[in-house]
Amino acid sequence: MGPKASAAFDEMQKTATKVRAPYQTYAKWLKKMPDDLLSRRHAQADMLFRRIGITFAVYGEAAGSERLIPFDVIPRILSRDEWKVLSKGVCQRIEALNRFIHDVYHDQEILKAGKVPADLVLQNDLFREEMKGFTPPGGVYVHIGGIDVVRTGESEFHVLEDNLRTPSGVSYMLEDRDVMMRLFPDLFDTYSVAPVNHYPQELLKNLRYVAPPARDEDPTVVLLTPGQFNSAYFEHAFLADEMGVELVQGQDLFVEDDTVYMRTIKGPRRVDVIYRRIDDDFLDPKAFRPDSMLGVPGLFAAYRKGRVTLANAIGTGIADDKAIYHHVPDMIRFYLGQEPILASVPTWFLKRESDRKYVLDHLADLVVKEVHGSGGYGMLVGPKASTQEISAYRERIMADPGNFIAQPTLALSTCPTFVDQGIAPRHVDLRPFVLTGEKTTVVPGGLTRVALREGSLVVNSSQGGGTKDTWVLER
Amino acid sequence: MLSRTAENLYWMARMMERSENMARILDVSHRMSQLPGGQDASREWLPALVISGQHEDYETKYADVSAGHVIAYMALDPDNPSSIRSTVRAARENARAERNMLPTEVFESINSTWLEMQDIQYSRLVELGYREFFEWVKERSQLFAGVIGGSMLTTDAYFFTRLGVMVERADNTARLLDVKYHVLVPDEDKADEAVDYYQWGALLRALSAFKAYRMIYRDSIKPRQVVDLLVLRREFPRALHACYAEIVPILETLSAEPECQRMAGQMYSRLRYDRPQDVTRRGLHRFLTDFVTRNGQLSNEIARSFLFVPAD
Description:
The complex is a heterodimer. By secondary structure, chain A is an alpha+beta fold. Chain A is about 30% helix and about 25% strand. Chain A has 2 domains: about 290 residues, no CATH class; about 100 residues, Rossmann fold. Chain A contains 14 helices and 23 strands. The N terminus of chain A is likely disordered. Chain B is mainly alpha-helical. Chain B has one domain. At the A-B interface, strand 9 of A face helix 1 and helix 6 of B.
């Protein structure tokens, strides 16, 4: 059975009096500091974020109404050994997922071997027929992957979700660190924290590496954004700036003779690699949704001819589907011949009769989700739901059982967090960003999201979640 | 630099300059309507609509021409893309899209102009007084230009901004000068000299050129000298010559396509070497109409040269 849903593991306090090793220096430091230090730093951080303009746009906003994602001034600290396991685990996962995507669009060995049910892949809306038989440069599909990891015990890490399409949040990882270094320079003197700010350079190096083979001398890389009204626009502009590449919109690009160009004041300039932050469906009105105003007509044809590289590749959605998630451990065994380093969360498929019976008997303890849902919508959190809500949900399940999966309610670990009442434990998750070019690597750390409301397990920024700087100690 | 960035900056500047010039056009009509014999609303206010190219659309909305209607339409109507309100809004939208290319003060200046503009209703405008409103618009536009001049790097982004200002300003000065043709009977010789004085005077004042005129000519207002000042004088910053004196080297710096540079250079040489009598030989109205057409063609050529996004 899965992890216990009771008392959560706290990453700082082993017991009420005993502090876990990675936090010991921090605890001592905190004791020496004046009482109001954190609240002063908190206010300072708020000002810094406002000034730098790290905001996310709110849809349908009136002039200038942009919001800040709350930032917590207490770092989340991971030891070197903890990170060793985590980083190996997420890289292993991405390697297997890349192999899986290549396989399903080519020989489909894993389906033939019966390790993943063929209909789950072939009948899936996210399976792109158009990608069959095509290999992107270097065989890389997921250049940037965000793996959501939760912790439930001293050495119990679970992968909650893979984000293989256009994962976001890395700008917060970088800015959080920047702000922390400004606010607490003395802490960085005491602690040896692994740096993260080379992420944009790593990304750029990888993007250049996957340029079309004939164009790898000095390839032109661009970042394609849906535009300033997209909620992640800040991140797009930030990353383009950090990498020193152009931030383009669909209308800035055009395709001629299966070659992609951008319009510059010095004339058309050939584009070799597009880091796109637009979903597959909107990339090319000629190949996908014809009503897309964001895309570039003819882009897909140029892509299939190998004249331009897209990062991430088209069709990666087939591998981060909730129904596929369950099979990632099998993929790791099948392609890499290794045992998975990170556990998956046990998953019940309501399509299966035995699973269905178990789930319906235990709705009050489980989390039930729609297979294709995202963002926490249409979800049942059993322990937090009323009897009426549970029975209403039961009816939805009965109407279309195949559309649902269930998982145990995880007791996400907590970290000390500065809230109105002072310092208190709050639940956290972690999204490391895994990059693949010549090889698969991960910058030490990631985005820690924290549920600021007491007892809440929902870390999404749209539902009162904040962020924390994530420290990986070098010794 | 991306063409879209250049295009947004170019139109940001054009739209802000246009809002100022709309205020100037309304101002001159307002001044003329207050002169003796200026009580015929259609005679005083129709030209404002005609020279700014808004007459046809106006007629679909209003049956008659009156001061109140024209001002409401040209200053505040959100459905009129050339109204002061719409042009300020368009300038702000363009600025917003290129926010990270602009110094903070530049965006803040245009943003607060727009926020204030949003609150101005017709009743508020009457309360404020037309003249005060026109002054305010001019002030905000000049503040914007000042902040740009005082804080922006003089690189490509700046040059596209200036290019927008100059192309727009040349267009507007030419149109304003043409107002005289629409107000007066075409036969200049028979015009009443006193009325003439006040009308040219009103035009000069609306263009902030009254003092400049006196400083240069030290003479009573004579049509030929007004034309000289507004068309041929390089030292007057709203003169057509002054606009093209800036456009030509900017296009060179930006390495515009040869055709684009040729068109600008050809116009520039005329403005530089023509005498007032050359301008009026075939009639001032004809000269100005021709100028506005060519200036528009130059703008199209700029769009082609720098690959502005084609409107499909």
